Amino acid sequence: MALDGIFLQHLVAELHPLLVGGKISKIHQPSQSEILLTIRNQRQNYKLLFSTHPNFARCNITTQTFYQPDEPPMFCMLLRRFLDGGIIDDIQQVGLDRVIRFTIRHHDELGDLTYKTLILETMGRHSNLILLDQNDTIIDSIKRVSPSQNRFRTILPKQLYVAPPLDTRYDYRQIPSDLFANQSDETFIAQQLQGCSRRFARYLSEQLETRTQAEVFHDLYTNAPMPTAFRGEQEDFYWLDIFGGTSKYFTTLNSLLDDFFHDKDERDRIKQQTHNLAQFVNQELERNRRKLIKLQATLDDSENATIYQQMGDLLFANSWLVTPHTTEVTVTNFYDEAQQPLTIPLNSLLSVKQNAQKYFQKYTKAKTAQIIVKEQLEKTQAEIEYFDTLAQQLSQASTQDAQEIRFELEQQGYVRTRAKKHRRHMPKPTFERYISTTGTEIWVGKNNLQNEHLTFKSARRNYIWMHAKDLPGSHVVLCTETPDEATIRAGAYLAAYFSKGRESSSVPIDYLPIKQLKKPNGAKPGFVTYEQQKTIYIDPDIDLLPDLQK
Fold first, then answer.
1. What is the CATH T-level fold of the domain 5-167, as seen in this structure?
2. Mean pLDDT over residues 257-274, rounded?
3. What percent of the chain has pLDDT over 70?
4. DSSP states of 390-403 as a string?
5. SS3 for 529?
6. Are 330 and 345 in contact (CB under 8 A)?
7. Could you write out the DSSP letters of every residue in 279-297?
8. Which residues of 88-117 are buried (b: 16+ CB within 10 A; e: fewer)?
9. How far apart are CA 30 and CA 22, in angstroms?
10. Res. 297: pLDDT tops 70
11. Is 326 helix (H, G, I), strand (E, B) or coil?
């Protein structure tokens, strides 16, 4: 992606009038690789996002909403200590490198005016956000780099900040007039110009084939940015339209970055914040599957309980055949229609009566085990269905959805409840709302708490309820008693899309009035039983989702 030095030059020019002179009023850290500053300037609040993600490193003003962790990470707390209430004094790019310096004036604990520098380095997997004091000594960074990782640049507290190696190539605004007179291929251009990505070098090479160097670079100096996103097989963006074909244009570079990276950031943020939760759910799922196999084997063994009773009876009936200290006896099995002989193993240290009693004890134990094992099988199967549902919900969850799933696991006693000082009040579950093409509202729950709330608390008893047949998935409610065919198909599509059958075709969807649902006593959130349902088969199609979104 073309977030090169030349792009950053135009981005800094756009940020400068908006943020310089602004006051930092809030500091948050939505994920391990992101910092969010709220800056008040010119009677307006701007949310400035810094990302050091290896693939999405950047800074831009965003309009998105970010989930805030219960407990701010250490680096976030440090930034609050040194930058909260500070004024952005200047924003500068280092040459045409992918390095931006934010100079911030701030009063320390004694009230003395001090200057701090926040440096963003957008360099792939080496991207970092570093806080310096006024002597360019590192206070801390979002990623610490030890001498064993990089001998040239150690990024640790109390170390002197060492800038990345200076780029000695040409600034595209100050190049010799004949630099590309004899050679203008993509590789040569990228080698000669600072801050020039391969994609931009390819564009310049194409331009230089039909135009002079003076004409091409004059346009670069004078033309205003035309923020463009390319939506092809390989998505890309740049500060001007270098793609052709299917492109989307934006009014500002900030809105371009905000739109382009939003979904990618959200997926990565959810992955970070739900990793431990998903790991726990998968472990519980596998543990119960292994338990089910063992229980089934135990049940199969206990099915042989009758043979133990028969052996005990046969021993009593044929006690005269048993000699002392023998290890087995062969008798006629009168329980067998063919009267086949049966060899019964014996404990040589026990009498005939004691051996018979041992077999009767095994019979009693096996019969009792059958009852217990069957109960355990039902419980284990229910656990597998429950955790399979949670795994499906986590795969499609937003950050808020994942937090509600964790809260549900706390309520069910599966995970330890967080300490009160670290636990925020869980708000009333919300659910997604859609509109069918005929104007009927459709509700979709993304987890068990949402499913429970929308089905039994928000919806009326005569509304139509839908769910993927025999698959983990969302509760879908059509907010009408008499849905038309278009609304039924829209609801069925949503029920299929938000289920484990999302990647399948012809997914069966059951539907019926909510008043026909039954919730067993003690059942887990979102679990219902029903009968007398109707079924429709539908193919999930992601292209229909934007048309239904409210």
1. ibrinogen binding protein from staphylococcus aureus fold (2.30.310)
2. 77
3. 95
4. HHHHHHT--HHHHH
5. strand
6. no
7. HHHHHHHHHHHHHHHHHHH
8. beebebbbbbbbbbbbbebeeeeeeeeebb
9. 22
10. yes
11. coil
pLDDT tens for residues 182-211?
A: 888 999 999 999 999 888 999 999 999 999
Confidence band for 437, pLDDT divided at 50, 70 and 90: confident
* Helix pair angle (253-302, 399-412), 10° resolution: 30
Distance of CA 9 to the CA centre of its chain: 33
pLDDT surpasses 80 at 338: yes
Q: What is the DSSP letter of 224?
A: P
Cβ–Cβ under 8 Å, residues 331 and 314: yes
Structure tokens at 318: 């044929």
Q: What is the 3-state secondary structure (H, E, C) of 443-474?
A: EECCCHHHHHHHHHHHCCCCCEEEEECCCCEC
Give the count of alpha carbons within 13 A of 42, CB side only.
7
The structure tokens 């290890």 sit at: 327
Q: What is the pLDDT of residues 441-500, one digit of tens each?
A: 999 998 999 999 999 999 999 999 999 998 999 999 999 999 999 899 999 999 998 998
Rounded to whole angstroms, the Cα distance separating 234 from 51 reads: 21
Q: What's the token pair of residue 279?
A: 């790991």
* Mean pLDDT for the chain overall: 88
Q: Which residue has the tokens 């040569």?
A: 188
Q: How confident is the model at residue 550 (pLDDT cuts 50, 70, 90)?
A: low
In the chain, helix, strand, coil percent, each to 5?
40, 20, 40
H or E element: which one contains 40?
Answer: strand 34-41
Quick one: pLDDT band at residue 426, thresholds 50, 70, 90? Answer: low
> Which pairing describes strands 99-107 and 87-93: parallel, antiparallel, or unpaired?
antiparallel
Q: Alpha-carbon distance 120 to 318, whole Å?
A: 91
CB 508 within 8 A of CB 516: no
- Domain range annotation of the chain: 5-167, 186-249, 274-427, 432-548
Alpha-carbon gap, residue 313 to 335, rounded angstroms: 10
Closest alpha carbon to 453 in 425, 476, 482, 430: 430
Decide: pTM greater than 0.70. Answer: no
